[in-house]
Specification:
- Two copies of one chain form a homodimer.
- Chain A is α+β, with helices and mostly antiparallel strands.
- Chain A has two domains: 1-96, Arc Repressor Mutant, subunit A (Orthogonal Bundle); 99-161, Ferric-uptake regulator, C-terminal dimerisarion domain (Dna Ligase, domain 1, 2-Layer Sandwich), CATH 3.30.1490.190.
- Helix content of chain A is 45%, strand content 23%.
- Chain A contains six helices and five strands, in the order ααααββββαβα.
- Chain A has helices at residues 7-24, 30-39, 49-58, 65-77, 118-126, 146-158; strands spanning 81-86, 89-94, 101-106, 112-116, 132-145.
- In chain A, the strands form two sheets. Chain A has a three-stranded mixed β-sheet with strand order 4-3-5. A two-stranded antiparallel ribbon of chain A has the order 1-2.
- Strand 5 of chain A pairs antiparallel with strand 5 of chain B.
- Chain A binds a DNA duplex through helix 4.
Chain lengths: 161, 161
DNA sequence: GTCAGTGCAAACTTTTTGCAACTAC
DNA sequence: GTAGTTGCAAAAAGTTTGCACTGAC
């Protein structure tokens, strides 16, 4: 993921961050820049706070967990980050310059697959709703990945289901 | 919600529960029956474990929280319950005899609106995916309810956004 | 110089686990 | 009688809060 992102994308992300911070009267700190670099440098599209922290340490940049949590909120508001609740696990995902997609989550092993589907997602975004102003649509398909589905079938057979 | 459910629905739910338990070699306990009654007797479609527990106490039936958590898992597997992650809040929802719908969640106040949309949901259910066997589709629209959207606009103006 | 932002540790919330007692089958 | 279930309490996991210190503006 990370390494595929162009310099141009990263410059744009930093520009958007700074614009947002200035607009809100917030400060441009090295921590915030490093967190954004880490987010857009993750190897996997979805990651936990824990994994983001590990990435920052790998970049030789230590931040307090509390700082991470604080800034996740801010970055979502800035439109640079999505938050997902995959099963009971909270994950984040870089959102700038990412194609609309939805998520398939395996109930057994927790595996998450991203699926692009522009038509469906844009259809959703267009949906007008009385009494609600939507800005993001999240679609989650729950089920079992091929591997876990097979394991499950084997187990069911044993139980004479 | 609760009180609108017919006796026939409740009988059916209990039948499905017992069938599932027998099929799995699990036991039909008074706790399990009471939990299902509570779930299908909630006033609001979405509820937390806390609220479900309160409902059980109102029914003069005390169960340990651990028992509730255990049985939520089982009831989801039995197809009688959905679990949602609305923002950071875990909610449950009765699923038997409930029309497919999706959820609008206010980022500010946490309000959740159910929206029926059979066409969209069935379209999703039909989607064939390589390497994944989906059984449930969850759609969440995040945004702001009319009230919070207005409050937010006022605040933004103050910040000279 | 001021105050937002940070690190750290403690607190809090939510969920899980271990174990003895109980009960559905 | 024998497991599967339950209640209880302790533990674990994830997130938030309070406060003193730092550094962006």
């Amino acid at each position: 993921m990370a390494n595929e992102r162009t310099n141009q994308t990263m410059e744009q992300v930093h520009r958007l961050l700074e614009e947002y911070l200035h607009r809100r009267g917030l400060r441009v700190t090295p921590e915030r820049k490093a967190i954004v670099d880490a987010i857009y440098g993750m190897d996997e599209p979805h990651f936990t706070i824990e994994q983001l922290n590990a990435r920052l340490e790998a970049m030789h940049f230590r931040v307090a967990l509390a700082t991470l949590y604080n800034n996740m909120e801010m970055l979502m508001d800035a439109g640079l980050l999505w938050r997902h609740y995959f099963g009971p696990v909270t994950c984040y995902e870089a959102s700038y310059d990412v194609k609309p997609h939805f998520h398939c989550i395996c109930r057994e092993c927790g595996m998450v697959m991203n699926l692009s589907n522009d038509r469906l997602t844009s259809r959703l975004a267009e949906t007008r709703i009385r009494g609600f102003k939507a800005d993001d649509a999240y679609i989650y398909l729950y089920g079992f990945c091929t591997k876990c589905a097979a394991a499950r079938r084997r187990r069911s057979k044993k139980l004479k289901k």
